[in-house]
Each structure stands twice: as structure tokens, then as C-alpha cells.
Amino acid sequence: MPVNLPFPQATQLRPVPGVQLGTTAAGIHKSGRNDVLVMTFDQGSHVAGVFTQNRFCAAPVTVCRAHLASDQPIRALVVNTGNANAGTGATGLTHAQQTCEALGHLLNVPAHNILPFSTGVILEPLPVTRLIDALPQALANRAHDHWLPAAQAIMTTDTQPKAASRTIHIDGQPITLTGICKGAGMIRPNMATMLGFIATDAPIAQALLQELVKQVADQSFNCISIDGDTSTNDAFVLIATGVASISEITTATGEAYICFYNALVSLAQELAQMIVRDGEGATKFIRILVEAGKDISECRQVAYTIAHSPLVKTAFFASDPNLGRILAAIGYAGIHDLAIDQVNLWLDDVWVAQQGGRHPHYQESDGQRVMQQSEITVRVSLGRGTASASVWTCDFSHDYVSINASYRS
Amino acid sequence: MPVNLPFPQATQLRPVPGVQLGTTAAGIHKSGRNDVLVMTFDQGSHVAGVFTQNRFCAAPVTVCRAHLASDQPIRALVVNTGNANAGTGATGLTHAQQTCEALGHLLNVPAHNILPFSTGVILEPLPVTRLIDALPQALANRAHDHWLPAAQAIMTTDTQPKAASRTIHIDGQPITLTGICKGAGMIRPNMATMLGFIATDAPIAQALLQELVKQVADQSFNCISIDGDTSTNDAFVLIATGVASISEITTATGEAYICFYNALVSLAQELAQMIVRDGEGATKFIRILVEAGKDISECRQVAYTIAHSPLVKTAFFASDPNLGRILAAIGYAGIHDLAIDQVNLWLDDVWVAQQGGRHPHYQESDGQRVMQQSEITVRVSLGRGTASASVWTCDFSHDYVSINASYRS
User: CB within 8 A of B118, min separation 6: which ones?
Assistant: First the structure.
């Protein structure tokens, strides 16, 4: 049961002029459901992406990087679920390239105008023939308003599709941003996420788009963790079709940029939080805010250490205010000169630890009250600077074990 | 159910001349069972210890460090379970000091000749009066052959006491080494372990004993992880009473040293592995061997990343050869220049991945056969050097969640 994650309504997902989406079933996902998505972009679209830092990155990630680096226009992307095409060596690379060639052929564009994505089981050969055979069907299914079926076709252990939209106005013109993402396990993005795609009809210069994708990932998908496992296939891609009739945004300044940037960050954060809300076995959504650190890096380090502690996560699952476990995690987060008598801890509005020890007015019943909520904020003050960072995570339940003990069976 | 961990027989635990052990119930542990251990050492004993690197180290750890640094003889130690006296600020320090003063008074030695230890719940005040009131009873209970009740009195979520002995001969004289330890959760020792105590009647010079305790911890308690959570209270202490009539061992050379060192490492490894075998909810004992690395540090880093991955651990629980999860963990272990086409992976005798991809002869049924065993070796070759490192860990089961979701209730 996802945590406060309403099922997206198709009518709330606004088509992005310049983008079409088609889905089909290629028989790669064991369930027989739709498992292939093709997105095509009008000529003139700009595309930028960030990808996993996992050294065992999947073959399609390697191909995406090469195609984006070629400075050629990107005209389509293809995603399959059910198989990650990772840990597949040279054969895997060939399969990813063959997929691009096949789709390029059907669209009458070169193979390096295509970005391939895969998600699913690692270390098993991609059934590339089935994928290629399904491409004509996916193309035939294309429409501007297929964002919801697109979100459904890329799911793995997700219990719900994840999609959202924003509409803003720039120079009196409506601008749309719509995005989808997937992921529920093996989630600890490192400079990227599982799969996230956001498209807009705003015209954004290619160089600026490339800056934006990194900046936005750092404020959204790079702030989440479910189990601390960085995937082999993480990717976050921004598509700007430029179909809207406003002047191209070329620099990170000015009213139009700020308006667009705020909408983009807000959408990316909503999508990233959807992944946590649908975290494998999650029963609670937890915000971890670490403040008064020397720099953002140490704040993130402490926040992630708390977010990854199995003891902290099981205490949240049990609604047990066993909050010493949070102090222990702060203590082993690797800040060697941390003065613990400067550390304060709050659970929502409850002051739990003051100057490194139990707050004199802290009552177990107050901790208990907050722990029973479905959404909880852990706030840590390190008392050594002015930097801060947030991480969003979930608890660790019996269902997490069940889901991951039976993922392939 | 611990993994291949026989209940220790009292008759197999050999008394160490110069060491006496007494236990009692102080009413600190909620069960009402024995929860206090006092060990006393004959005059002339040498004692050395290593402690947690957690910045939120417990009050007794701070006191132990100060007392060991004072270069005064250590004549006794006192351990309570049921309360960690961690996250307790200045009051916690006072409580630990009061405990030493009370025991010192009873033994007619200064307070800084005593080492205090606590284990249990963090962030709750130590019931120091109950502890002090129980000390005379614990002293009265002392005997040379109370190693088994001592191991039982320091248990927290352990399902079994952990204790073992070695006898060696040096210069024709029998030398005994006996040790106990505890710990089943919050286990990822960093330069130390939960609580481990090994005593010997061999005469070992103080300076050498201090070197030995670090060296042996690195080869035993520092090679284990259950959940990746470094405790606030880890401590590993070596006691050498010097009662045996052989010449004092003063340097890390010579036949007597080598004989003693081998027995000590073997005993410490057995005790450390007992902690993993009794890991919270463990159903499998897993050795992770990472070899052909550039240095030991990167081998340990990769081994711990595999050992801490919830996805790898749940796959072991399910006996599911979802071995791509191991490759993913290797890939995000933080070796930024790792060439994945040099990486090989074996599960016991089964060659799973060759040069970064699935081995052409790897059969799922072979992986399945090994995964069903209760003891499994994961061997990774990084193909970039000659260093290697081992880590011992366990799987991640429903029971881990149950135990930690109800630890305090």
C-alpha cells in the first residue's frame, strides 16, 4: 500500500505539444502486460539526461551517454521493463544498439537519434528480437494523451503508475510540463534516478537544458532512498520540444527562467517523492532534514546514514520511538570531528535530544504520537555551520522482505 | 534460529588463571534475568581495549578510554545489559563514573582501575542505583569457571550465549585463552565490536597487548556486519593475567608469540562469527571474499557494500540466485575507476560472471543449488591488483524486521 499516493487521473496529465507516446506488450515482462514504451519528439526538440554512477551501468545507459554526446538531435526513446540489460557484457551493448537501429529505421532517422532504456532483472540476456518485433505496434499506438499508459508500461515492482503535470504561463502563453517515473526498489540514486522522464513544450537551449537536468536531479531524484541500493539503470531525462510560441530560454536568469525552473523542480520533487511513497513495502513517508552543518555534503551524508539504517527504518515501521537509533546513525555517519554536545534532534514538533542527550522535557508519549503518523519529519541540527540538506525515505517492513525475496519467482 | 551455532558447553570453557567472574540480576533488563557481570583480574594483569568509532559513543566507552589512558592497572570490569547508557549526556558520564567508584570501593582499588560497559537501549537513563546495589551480590557470586553464566548475563537480542576457549603450549606450559562476546543487531563494528572479552593467563607486555587488540580486531570483529549499523557501545578487550609461568612475551616475534597470536586470532574469529551466526533473524551464514583489488581498503569497501545491500540479503533469505544484485552492489561500491570487464564472480564453486557479464556456462540451477545451503561463499575478483579482504555476514529475513520492530515493546 503506497503512502498517500493517489492514483493519477488521465485527465490531470496534460499532453505536451511535440511529444507522442505509444505502448505495447512484447512479452518481456513475465506478467504479459504492456512492457514497451516509445516516445517520439518533434523535430527541433532538445533532450538532456543524467545517468547512474553505478560502474556496472546497464548497456542502454552506455548507449544513451554515447548518443547524447554525439550532439545529434534525439528524436525518440524506447523503454522496456522486465529486463535491465545490465551485467550482460558486449552482447548487451549489441542488443541496445540493435534496438536503436530498428526504431531508427521505422522512424527514418539514424540510430544515434534514439535513446534506449531498460529496467528489470539484472544478469539475464535481453530478449531483443521480441522487443524489436514489438516496435511497430508501439509506434502505431502513439498519441499525445498516452501519458498514463506510458507510466504504466514502465512499472516494475511499482504498485501504481507515477505521473504528474504542471501548467505555467510565460509571456501570456501556456507552457506544459508533464513527467512520469518508475521505481520502488534498488533506489538510492547517485546523480540520477531509476527512470524519470519530464517533457515540456517550452523552448530551452540545449546547453541550459543540460545544466538544468543535473541541477533538478540534485534537488529531487537525488534526495530519495528506499534501500540504499544504487541501480544499474538509473536515468533522468528532460525533453524540451520548443513547440510553445515563446522566446527560447537560453540562460539561467530572468522571469521566464525562474517561473519555468520553479515549476520543473516542483514537478521533479513530486515525482521523486512518488517513488518513495510507493517504496517496496513502505507504510510511512519520512522527510529527513539535516541542518546547521558545515557543508551540504556532510548534511546529506548524515541524512542518508539515517535513511539507510535498517534499525531506524524498522523502528518507523513499528511506530516505536526508539530514537536512540537515530543518534547512533548520526554518530557513525563519518563526521569524525562531530561534537555530539552540539547535536539536537526533533521529530516533527517534538524536541527529542538537546545537546547530545535526551531533552529534559521529552516524553515518550510525545514521540509515540508522531511515530504513529503516516508522514514524519526527522530534523537534526548538527550545530556546526549553516548548510542543510533533505532526504526523503520510507520505512522497512515485512513486505519489503517478502517483495524482494520473491521478485523473480 | 542461529546458523550452525552449537550451544556452548560449560565444560569446554576453560578457566583462565587470574580471572574470576560473577553475575547477578539487577532488574535493569526487562526480563528479570541476570543482567550484570563483574570480572576481576589478579594483580599484575595487563588489559587493552578498542572501542567504537561512533561519535555518539556511550558514556562507559568514554570512561573506559580515560581509564585505559591513565596507565594505571585495570583490576576489574563491570557490564550491564538492558541499557546502553548512550545518548545520555553528562548524566550518563556521571552514572558510569559512580559505577566505577562503587565497584572500586568494594574491591579496595581506585575507581580508574575499573572498566564499565553497558549494552541495550539508547537514549534512556541508566538505573544506576539498581546497578550499584547489585554489585556486592555479583562479587559474591565470583568463580573461575563462571564463563558460561557470564556470556549469558551480557546477552541482549542474542538467542544464545557466545563463548569459546583455546589451549596452547608454550615452553611446555599450558596456556589458556577464553573469550565471550555478545551482539546480534546494530552490528557493523568499526575498529571494535559489540562487546567481546578475551582473557589469557599468558604474560603479555602492555605495549604489545595494545598492538594485538587492534590487529586481532581487524581480523575478526571488524570483519562482520549484520545490518550495517555501527553501535554506540562496541568494545573489544584483551586481558592477560600473566599467571602462567612462562617468560613475558614482549615483541611480535618468536615462536611463543606466533603460537599465541594464531590461537588468539582463531578464537577471536570464532567469537566474531558466532555473532553473525546469531544475527537477528539470520538463516544463512555468508562469507564474502573480495580479491585481486588494488588495496585491502577497496576490497573491504566492496565486500561491505555487498554485505549491506538489502537486496542481496533478501535474495539470500529467499535462496533466489538473483545474482545481478551482487554485480549492482559491486558497481556502486565507490571504486570510480573499476573496469567491469575485469570483474569475475563465483558463488562457492559456481562461476557466475566472467569479465563483467554472465558466464557462458552458468546455469541457474547451479546458482540455485548453492543458494539453498546454510553457508555460502561469495567470491569476487576485481582484476586490478593483489589485495584481498573477507567479510562475514548473514541474510535479511522477516524475523529481522519482527525483532527490530518489537525490540523495546
Answer: B58, B59, B60, B79, B80, B81, B83, B84, B85, B86, B96, B126, B233
